[in-house]
Structures are given as structure tokens and as C-alpha cells.
Amino acid sequence: MDSLYAAQDKIKQDLGLSKVKVIHNQNYQRHGTKSYVYLLNRFGFQPTKPGPYFHVDKVRQHGLLPEELKGALGGTVHTERTLVKRLDQDRDQTGEVTADDQQNDSMYICKVGIGSPAQNLLLDFDTGSADTWVFSTLQDNTTQSGHNVYNPKKSKTFKKLSGKSWKIQYGDGSTASGDCVSDTLEVGGLTIKKQTIECATKMSRQFSQSTGDGLLGLAWGKINTVTDAGEADPQATPVENMIKQEDIPKASELFTSAFYSSRDKNPKSFYTFGFIDKDLVKKSGQDIHWTEVDNSEGFWSISSESCSINGEKIDLSGNTAIADTGTTLALMSDKVVEKIYDHIPGATYDWSNQGYIFPITVKADDLPELKVAVGDAEYVIQKEDLAFALTDDKQNWYGGVQSRGEMPFDILGDTFLKSVYAVWDQGNKRLGLVPKIEETQNLEPPPDSPDSEGGGKEKLHSIDLLAVDAAESTEDP
Asked: Which residue of 66, 126, 310, 343 pairs with 326 in a disulfide if CB–CB is 3.0 to 4.6 A?
């Protein structure tokens, strides 16, 4: 590893690479059920635990006839899976899922430059997506309000990609869509030329009311949503282009992530592109443990064939998991989740919250030591992250690990990723981890909780957050 670090130190110096500061979104207010509903939409899985939210198959008819005549006279019939909300536990009446039912904002956002000269935007870095889409001047002025927006006409390196378009749609009907251009993208000191930028022209309220200015996809391009004249035409992600265009040497075809809890007094989460933070690795006292990644479905999928609860090992032979920075919770099988909460005093499954909760009176010492396998090594999920969010009555915690429902794999989101330093080695199709546990476990309500100091403040728009970051940033190169 020392030779690798030495090579990357030189690369870092020669190319002027730097950490990408993660900005904790001051508008983000964590809510367990809303985060779970967002995941029901994001992954489209049917829950196996009872609660208000579930998927139904609804008939959609397309044609030129009025809606009231389509059923009788024709039109192409399609079935679409739609997320609905049961209005009463004892009745079958359902209603629509709205923007207020889910957490559609991002906890972490990062600065990215697009165009020449660079136009700075705040994007959500997401290893579970492969689209790089942004707010743009091509969309309606009302949906641009408060956002940093990309203006292609102000860039000398912009080129329109005729015929190419994109669309993201979730089961609740929320959508974002638009046209594609090619332009330069700058992140962490790296300059990536001819990157496909998906410019929003339309978006629903769920997207327009989020704090960030779009998304930077860090999965594999095969799940990119771009089409050309209606036919699938997936575009390369920034990291894939970084590799393809040889913007970075072979030994550095990677990025890394280090997330810290918002409960900490001075959280300094970051990403790097093209180099590993060797000081953080050495601080762990361990070498990086590498695990092969299966990217056949476009995700960072790894084996996760066991977990341990207070030292009791649970065999999960054949189990896999997706490592996903775009997910706040960790989702695991009912078999595992039930055992986790069996070890927490007073924990129970709650229908209205559609998740496991436990009393706020529980102390850190009362929580179990949970370890989750990635490859043939197990990693502790720090105890404070088992207490994700206060419930509405402020008497319980919504647990950070919840049911994956009918999904055949786990999702290891921020609840897991905050406990490790992750090296996403895309060039070698492997994921490297070292443990990163806070010395003191803090179960105080985090700053992004409405009842905490720092919660419930007046909303800051992304324009404001970018200005604050420019004024206060002290990030070392």
C-alpha cells in the first residue's frame, strides 16, 4: 500500500487534486417514515411489514380518446406500479402519496463546476444512480427559484446533443426530465471534458423544492436513463469518463467517501477523486480490506453473507448488498431486522411509522453491537446511527436499520457508510473499507432534527449555501 500511496501523492500534487467538501444540508430535517417512503419510491419494492404505504398495480391507458371513453372504446392498456397510502389502519380506503409524505431532500451536497468558465452548483453525489442532471435555464423560472442553475449559453465548451433526452420518474408520480448537452465538469481538482450533462426542462414539486441543484451519479453508466430518439442510449458517468479519457492514471481510477454524523460538533465529511486519504486509513489502524464488486446491474453490489448482533453470528449465505450513498437508512432482511430490535429494550414495530422504533430513554450502552459483513470482513455500525430520527411524538427513535421488504438484497446506506471510510475503486471493480467509529456515541437529537438546536430554521436556498461555503470554506488542498 505504501507504494500506492506514494504514487497517488505524486498524482495529487501534479494534478492539483483536493478533497471535495461535503456540505451538510441545513434544510434537511430527518424523519424516519418519510425517508422509508422515499426508498419505497426509489427502489419500488413492496413492503413486507404492515403500514400505511404500499404499492398497487394501476391500469394506465394511452391513446387519443378522452379518459371516460378509453375503457369502452380502446387505447393501449399498461399497468404501472404506484405507491399509495392507506388512510386508516382498519379500512381499505387509500389516497395519493404526496411530496409531504416523503423526504425528497439530500442530507449531503457537494460543489461541482460545470462549463467554461465553471458555473458552480451543489449536487447530491449518489452511488445508486448514473445520471448527472442539473437545474438549468431551460426550465420554467418558477422551478429555478433559489437554485444555482446551469446556463449552457454562458459556457464556451457547451455542445448540444440533439435527440438525446432523459427522464426520472418515481412511483408517486414525481418526475424530472429534459435535454442533454456536452460540457466540461470540474470536481475535486479534476477536469472532465465532454461530460454529458442532463439539463432539466421540467420537474415536479418534489424535485423543485429540494435544496440541491441536481445529482451526480456514481454508479455504472448502464443504468443511465438517457435516450436518443426514444431508444435507450446510456451515457458514461463522470468517473467512467475520468477513466476513459485518462484524466487520471491507472492506479487512481477511484473515488472515496468519508461521512461523519451531523451530531458531531465539527463534522468534516468529504469525497476525493483520484486519491485515497492515507492519513484516515492509517488512523484506523487497519489496512484497506478489498471486496469484489458485481456491477452487472449497474450498482455497487457486494457479498454480505453474515452479520453479528452482540457477538452472535447470523449466517446469510448467498446474501448481497448494494452500497448506496443516496440512501440514508440501511435496509436488511426481516430475519435480521427483527433480531436487532429484539436486543433493544422497549423496541417495537409501529404500524403508523411503518418501521421499528425504540424509546428515547434507551442509552448507548443498552444498544447492541451490530456488525455487517462486506466480503469476508464484518464492520460495526456505530450505535448512534441506530437512532436515526425522532418520531412525531418525540418519545421514540425511528431505527436506522429497517426492512428491505420483498427486495432480494440489502441496501447499505449512510447508516452503514458513516462507520467506514470507503474506497470506490471503479477501475478494479472493488470496494475498499476501513472502520471509522466515533470515540463517543451521542444519542442527543441531531442538529437536523426539528426539536434540536439548529433545527426548524428559516430555509436556506442553494444559492445561499454556496455563498456561505465560499466565505467559510477552509478545506485543505
From this structure: 126
CATH number at 118 reads 2.40.70.10
Report the mean per-residue pLDDT for the chain.
90
Q: pLDDT-based confidence at 65, cuts 50/70/90?
A: very low
Nearest to 300 by CA among 318, 324, 276: 324
First to last CA, the chain: 22
Count the domains in the chain.
Answer: 3
- Cell 453491537 -> residue: 369
Give residue for cell 419494492: 45
Residue 454 is predicted with a pLDDT of 46
The answer to the question of residue 6 being in a domain is no
Strand-pair category, 370-374 with 355-359: unpaired
Other beta carbons less than 10 A from residue 131's beta carbon: 24
Residue 63: count other Cβ atoms within 10 Å of its Cβ: 13
The DSSP call for residue 136 is B
Q: How far apart are CA 255 and CA 136, in angstroms?
A: 27
Residues of the domain holding 172:
104-247
pLDDT at position 406: 97
Q: Which residues are designated catalytic?
A: 126, 324
φ, ψ for residue 303, nearest 5 deg = -75, 145
pLDDT of residue 69: 44
Strand, helix or coil at 419? coil
